[in-house]
Every structure is written in structure tokens, then in C-alpha cells.
Amino acid sequence: MSDQNDSSPIAKPKLTTATPIDTAAIRAAANKLDDGAVTSGYQGNREEVIALLNSALATELVCVMRYKRHYFTASGMENTAIKAEFLVHAGEESGHADMIAERIVQLNGKPDFNPAGLRERSHAEYDDSEDIVSMIKANLIAERIAIETYRQMIERIGDTDPTTRHMLVNIMAVEEEHADDMRDLLG
């Protein structure tokens, strides 16, 4: 067993005395009320982050519509469980859209819900397949697109906006679950 000395690979990091937090400066900067949640310490490129989030919002909205269409148009008793899965995913995608829109507002942006150009702003595609296997495949492809898009967004944002990054990581985890669900349905 190691005695956890400084040469041990599992040694605990040493804490150093940090510069105290400048409470007076924070309080003075906090008086800029029009910026809402965006404080003077925000390091992200707000305009770029808002643009990324609006494209993600469009993607989530298209995903809601695709899953809803598949839910309502899939037929047959043998597809009852698959239809239920489509409906659950539609609800979760709607929740993602809500979180993204809220974050855009927190960053003093405007969420773009305009249906004109929604398909063009979305990373994923809408699908109007008629058979259940094609529906499942379309949803799996869309989930894989969302996963990669969120991964790239997370990478681009880096540590400059931890709140947005955290939200995107959580959304991406759900999209990964959705992809697994769709893959499982393909058998």
C-alpha cells in the first residue's frame, strides 16, 4: 500500500491560498440589471452561443414534430409499444426545446420559434415515412445527428459558458438514450 506521499500517483493535490474574492467589485458589477443572468465574468461569445442554441432549438422542434407524426401514423397492435416510445421521446424533445429557449432568454437572446425556415435551421430532418421500420431508422439517424451536433457545440463552447455546457451535456445524454432505444427497436 502506498502512504500517499508526494511521489505517489494518487497523492492528494495541495491547496494553496487563493486571492480572496473581490466582493465589492462583484456587488458593483451586479448593479447592471439589464443583463439579467449574464454577469461581467461571462466569458462566452454570447451571440455565437445564442446562434448555436437557436439551431439546436430548431432541431428539437423538428424532432418533436417527427416523433409526434410517427406516433400518430404508426398503426397496428404489434406497434403499440413502439408508438408509446415515440410519444415519450416527443415529450422529452419538447422539454429539451424548452430548456434551450430558456437558456437563450437567460443570455439576453430571443428564441426563434418561427416556423418559416425551421427545417433549414434544424440539423436533423423531418420524416414522413409510412412503415414502422423506416420511422425507427429515421429517428435513429436524427438522434445520431443530434448527438454529434451537441458534442461539437460542447467542444466549441468549452469552459467559457459552464451553464450552457452543462445543459448541453445533459441533453446529449438523453439523446444517446434515445438512439439506444431506436437501435433496440430495430432488433
Automatic annotation (TrEMBL):
Keyword vocabulary terms for this entry: Iron, Iron storage, Oxidoreductase
Leader sequence residues: none
Keyword Kinase set for record: no
Keyword Iron part of the UniProt annotation: yes
Highest taxon of the lineage: Bacteria
One Gene Ontology term, aspect cellular component: cytosol
E.C. designation(s): 1.16.3.1
GO biological process: intracellular iron ion homeostasis
InterPro entries assigned: Ferritin-like (IPR012347), Ferritin-like_diiron (IPR009040), Ferritin-like_SF (IPR009078), Ferritin_DPS_dom (IPR008331)
Molecular function as annotated in GO: ferric iron binding; ferroxidase activity; heme binding
Domain Ferritin-like diiron: 43-187
Name of one Pfam family that matches: Ferritin
Enzyme class: oxidoreductase
Cross-referenced PANTHER family: BACTERIOFERRITIN (PTHR30295), DNA PROTECTION DURING STARVATION PROTEIN (PTHR30295:SF1)
UniProt-recorded name of the protein: Bacterioferritin
Organism field: Glaciimonas immobilis
